[in-house]
Amino acid sequence: MPRALARKDSDISLYRQAASILREQIADGVLPPGARLPAEEALRRQFGMSRGTLRQALDALDREGLIERAPGRGTFVRASARESANARSHIAWPKLVGCEALSATRLTREGVAVPPFAVTRALGLPKDTELPFFIRLSRARGSRAVGLKRYLHPDLAAQAPTLAAASDFDGALAGLGAADLGASWIEAILAEPRFAMQLKVPLGAPLLSIWWVHLLDGAPAACSQMLRPGTGVAVDLPRDSLP
Fold first, then answer.
1. What rounded mean pLDDT belongs to the chain?
2. Which CA distances in Å does 26 have to 56, 65, 82, 83, 190?
3. Of 33-47, 90-104, 132-146, which one has max mean pLDDT?
4. I need a labelling partner for 220 at 20 to 30 A (CA). Which of 53, 127, 137, 171 fits?
5. Strand runs (DSSP E) across 96-196, as ranges?
6. What percent of the chain has pLDDT over 90?
7. Per-residue confidence (pLDDT) for residue 110, from 0 to 100
8. Is CATH 3.40.1410.10 what the domain over 89-236 is classified as, yes or no?
9. Nearest CA to 49 among 85, 77, 21?
10. For residue range 198-237, what is the model confidence (pLDDT) as tens digits?
11. CA distance linking residue 232 with residue 165, whole number of Å
């Protein structure tokens, strides 16, 4: 099993980080149904935490029905755990970015801010450039909650209010020129307080952070981030990731 250390500088408690890592190992089949977990002392060293903190993580997984404790024998992955942990399924890129949940998003915030460096790099801008942005959240019934944050190139600042208000962002962008998709990349992260509150998920729950670049007349025009609770989907991205 690969070594995993919990981050002590994170806003997410250590036990939630450990529980999330173990939950993902169960979902991925690294810890298959019926598998015995390493001894608590081995897990404690693996995660770099106290025995009491580790037991909090195991208690959380026990409550979720992912593991069971057998006195004198150890701790085992339940037979139904992988299904409960939402084993991965593949989804094509067009289906992901065009999912029904996106059409049901509502505008919750807009403004100007310095984005992550990956965004300014993708848009070909200096590192500390301030960009117009807006955030939309999905509350579609029967669909997973989805958060969308879009950063716009400064050249689109005048169009920011119109693009933020548009329910069909791609269509609104296409009205300004020849629109296309550029590079894309994906991250697995844990829900920090602001994400957990927005998406109504537990603090430390796994999230997929999916980024893609919008091109306008062949030049980078915007960068979108989609946050989806859970990491039970493997996305077939259309192009090479950014270096």
1. 82
2. 18, 12, 6, 9, 16
3. 33-47
4. 137
5. 105-113, 131-138, 147-152, 179-190
6. 33
7. 95
8. yes
9. 21
10. 887 777 777 888 899 999 999 999 999 998 887 666 677 6
11. 31
Is residue 157's pLDDT more than 80?
A: yes
Half-sphere exposure of 71 (CA within 13 A, CB side): 0
- Contact, 183 vs 239, CB < 8 A? yes
Radius of gyration of the chain (CA): 20
Buried b (16+ CB within 10 A) or exposed e, 57-82: bbebbeeeebbeeeeeeebbbbeebb
pTM, two decimals, is: 0.68
Using one digit for the tens of pLDDT, what is the confidence trace for 18-74? 887 888 788 777 888 889 999 999 998 888 888 899 999 899 888 888 899 888 888
Fold equal for 14-84 and 89-236 = no
CATH fold of 14-84: Arc Repressor Mutant, subunit A (1.10.10)
Crossing angle between the packed helical segments 14-28 and 40-47, to the nearest 10 degrees:
110
Q: Where are the domains of the chain?
A: 14-84, 89-236
**Residue 149: pLDDT over 70:** yes
Place of tokens 């100007």: 112
Four-point Cα dihedral 89, 93, 95, 98, nearest 10: 140
User: Sign (positive/negative) of CA torsion 109, 202, 34, 76?
Assistant: positive
The number of residues in the chain equals: 243
Element (H, E) at 164: helix 160-165
Q: What residues form DSSP beta bridges with 131?
A: 113
